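User:
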Amino acid sequence: MSNHGALAELDAVIDKHLRF
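Assistant: Predicted structure:
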């Protein structure tokens, strides 16, 4: 359950790369 931080960071990176 310590993956929330990593997931949040990855989500932010993906969001930046998939910015329409």
